[in-house]
Design a protein that fits this description.
CATH architecture of one domain: Beta Barrel
Number of helices: 2
Strand order of the largest sheet: 3-2-1-4-5
Radius of gyration: 31 Å
Distance between the termini: 87 Å
Number of strands: 5
Strand content: 25-35%
Order of helices and strands: HHEEEEE
Shape: elongated
Largest sheet: 5 strands, antiparallel
CATH topology of one domain: Thrombin, subunit H
Helix content: 25-40%
Length: 105
């Protein structure tokens, strides 16, 4: 009988310990709510970083991927700038920047 009593006491202790550990774990985990941008917000960002690239061979587009002071890095497809020459980069606000590509990439 005493052995049965000790087992019940141990079970109650184990169950109580599980509740305490579970509660502690829940208290330590904090969830952060994440909200997606609206389609309008995404469109506004896309407009600001998309550029038109024009040269002797035609036109293409690119995306501004970095800014360091007044220097911008634009990512575009190879066929847009494959030939050496002068290219105009036009930003969303109509500003035109002329660049010269003098060698093959």
């Amino acid at each position: 009988m005493k052995d049965n009593y000790n087992r019940q006491k141990t079970m109650k202790f184990s169950q109580g310990l599980g509740v305490i550990l579970g509660t502690t774990t829940l208290a330590l985990v904090q969830y952060q709510t994440v909200f997606a941008l609206t389609p309008v917000e995404v469109n506004d960002i896309a407009k600001q970083i998309t550029v038109m690239i024009g040269g002797l061979d035609g036109k293409g587009s690119g995306v501004i991927i970095d800014k360091d002071g007044n220097t911008y890095t634009v990512l575009t497809a190879y066929h847009v700038i494959k030939n050496p020459g002068v290219y105009d980069i036009i930003t969303y606000d109509g500003e035109k920047y002329r660049i010269e590509r003098s060698q093959n990439v």
